[in-house]
Amino acid sequence: MRFLSHASLGLDDHSPYGRLLLRQRFVAIKKQFPWVYGVLLSSLIGLEVALRSSGYSGFSPGPLVLAIFALRALYWKQIGGHVPDSQIRAALQRTFLVALAVTGLFSAWSLFALLTLPEALTRIVLLFASTTAVGICAAMVYFPPVAQVPIYLILAPMIAAQLIPRDGISLAVGLSLLVLCFLIARIIRAHDKSFVRLVRTRYNVQIERSRAIASENTALREKTKIAEIANIDPLTRLCNRRGFIAALQATTEARQPYAVSILDLDGFKPINDTFGHPAGDALLVEVGRRLREVVGADGCVGRLGGDEFAILHHGSTCADLLAITQNAVRAIEAPCWTEGRAMNVSACAGVAGAEPGAQGSDTMRQADLALYLAKSNGRGEVEAFSDEMRSDVERRTLIEQALREPTAADQIEIVFQPVFKLDTLELRSFEALARWRHSELGWISPAEFIPIAEQLGVIERLSDTLLSRACDAARHWPDRVRLSFNLSPVEICRPNAAERILKILAAHGLAQERFQVEVTETALMRDIPSAQRCLTTLRKSGVRVALDDFGAGYAAISYLREMRFDLIKIDGSLIRPIGEEPHSIELVRGVIALCEAIGQQCVAEHMETEHQLAILRQLGCRFGQGYALQRELSARDALALASASMLALPERDEWGSDRDRQRKAS
Predict the structure, then answer these.
(1) In terms of pTM, does the model score above 0.85?
(2) CB neighbours of 312 closer than 8 A, spacing ≥ 6?
(3) Rounded Cα–Cα distance for residues 85 and 72 (Å)
(4) Which of 75, 127, 257, 307 lies deepest, with the highest CB count within 10 Å?
């Protein structure tokens, strides 16, 4: 029947709001049922007592209604405290049907009694029927369809019966009941509107709260994701430098003893350049996996950048982590297979331990210093920071502070060491060398302060100042004397290195053909494409390029032709043993022959004895420099030597002829 449809009864549960409204009605009605039963029970008992006391012996609905109440009471007790949303609509529908049946039965009997019983008994029936109807309406106000049933099935028929012309009293009672019905109906509608509005407000609040919680959860997920991106290396899934420093900071704040080791791969750059970045990335991932496997769950492994890794071990001493790091280095040395190709690298490492509360930056600095010492000892070495290194750390700190001063470059002197043609001892060029004698630290070697300047990021400022002073001195020399200047590994890989050098030459009026840059093998290995771009730009402008310290690094011979050098300088480690070690002469002879084979001149560095000078002349080495020829000179003495010792050169000198041949060959 249509009047029993869900929509007509307000039992629509197709939307979240509809389901919430039904649940709130159900909860409110359930709380009212004891009062409903109380009203009905008292009315039925009162009606039964009044009728029996008046001598009535006919049928009474009381026992049947009480039986229905008992069954409903058992039902409500059975369903307990929680009813699923899927069952609430059916429960409310059954409540309406029960109310319809009970009130219908009670109304039929009441009408029968009003029409057949004596007037004295009809007043009793009217009283209790009205009381029962009003009580049910008040108790079931949260469910209007049930609350309105007594109005239509009990009060309305009785009003009609009273309005039938009988006497003035019945008419008055009927009109009073009519007004009561109207007021009760208005109260039910007003209460239901307020109830629905309250539920709607709660629903909206719940929606907004759910949205707020969802937004908060989304923000937390985004925050977690951002934190992961900020602290995790995307390639190896290890901590990046920031994440590792954060873990180190947390350890120091927890005041736990800990140890740190820093590992740097040996030979990674050639693999990355030869086999490509995918192969290099696969190697880094494998190295990270092996480190995690060796360190275990008690430590933190991070990739600080490039091919540099770090290990943080909680509650460990330096000796404990030293053993773990040595195992890690051995694990790294095992071949890594990628696409059927075996790639082999080694690693050097520095280890430092710290007491609870020690600053993480100090411990990292100590481990880095130990790593520097390990790398100087060769491949696959592991060194632990010791008290003997502490003075080195203090000295390094003082050097850093001195380099940060704006006047640091003014404290460094420029000296010039000449390069001679060995057969005629003609002066060909001066190599500018930096000499720093600090007022407190004393003599500081370029091999000591230049790597520190690179790490501090002041190498460009320092180099530009020294180059400007060297160019200022060189512009007073005869035009046939060249200036040679060393570029650091970091400097040569900067994108604007060549343009910056050419700008300084132009500012001091030094011809580009009179200038020569010297680069080492290690500088080339740092970033071959960037170094090649820089050197190519310089050579195209007329600047000569020399490979310094040849024989002291790991560069492949093929780089000599790829980079197109104008000059190769043989490292002093090959020159010093001449005449002392059996195979030293043959080794130098081979290097000189190699240079001749590729059409490049060579210079022997660090010639210290007349014996070395004589042998190098016999081997055919054409140029040399060292104490056996001339020590470093100040700018004034270099000018005097250039002016006094300059011999007339052929119209096409050897260097120029060689360079012409190279250009034609290319």
Answers:
(1) no
(2) 244, 247, 248, 251, 258, 259, 260, 299, 300, 301, 302
(3) 20
(4) 307
